[in-house]
Amino acid sequence: MNIALIAHDKKKDDIIRFAQAYKYCLEKHKLFATGTTGLRIEENTGLDLHRFRSGPLGGDQQIGGMIADNNMDLVIFFRDPLTAQPHEPDVSALMRLCDVYAIPLATNMASAEVFIHALERGDFEWREIIHERENQE
């Protein structure tokens, strides 16, 4: 599965701890991240991931493009709801795309852990079936 990892500045330490705790699960999938978040995750976990631009410089939109092209299966976005974000329209657009294309979106540690446990159980196999059908057409 293709999984995006994104975090606002004040949540980067949280997503690093999350990636460290669930490295055994995340390393089985293709990972994508926005610039600084991806760099910090790589440095602290050794996970292999594709880094897009920083969120404010278009990284959120690049991940949004993958969602619109049906190339993203899960988005983990640790948002900081208490700090104004200069790129809030991009964040809102990314979240809207997740809703439009039925992409699971975790916005905090609790929901991300629920999704990781569901991933371990195989609860997201329906996403793989969709990809297989599209490849056959």
CATH fold label:
Rossmann fold
Number of helices: 7
Let me know the largest β-sheet. Answer: 5 strands, parallel
Q: What does the overall shape look like?
A: globular
What does this structure look like?
The protein has helices spanning 12-21, 23-26, 35-45, 59-68, 88-100, 109-121, 125-136, and strands spanning 2-7, 30-33, 49-51, 74-78, 105-106. The chain has a single domain (2-136), classed as Methylglyoxal synthase-like domain (Rossmann fold, 3-Layer(aba) Sandwich). The longest helix is centred in the C-terminal third of the chain and has 13 residues, at 88-100. Helix 5 links the parallel strand 4 and strand 5 (105-106). Helices cover 53% and strands 15% of the residues. The protein contains 7 helices and 5 strands. Strands 3-2-1-4-5 form a 5-stranded parallel β-sheet, sandwiched between helices. The chain has 137 residues and is α/β, with parallel strands linked by helices.
Please summarize what this structure is.
By secondary structure, this protein is of the alpha/beta class. 53% of the residues lie in helices and 15% in strands.
Give the tags.
Rossmann fold; 137 residues; 7 helices
Topology:
Layout: E1 2-7, H1 12-21, H2 23-26, E2 30-33, H3 35-45, E3 49-51, H4 59-68, E4 74-78, H5 88-100, E5 105-106, H6 109-121, H7 125-136
Parallel strand pairs: 1-2, 1-4, 2-3, 4-5
Helix pairs in contact: 1-3, 4-5
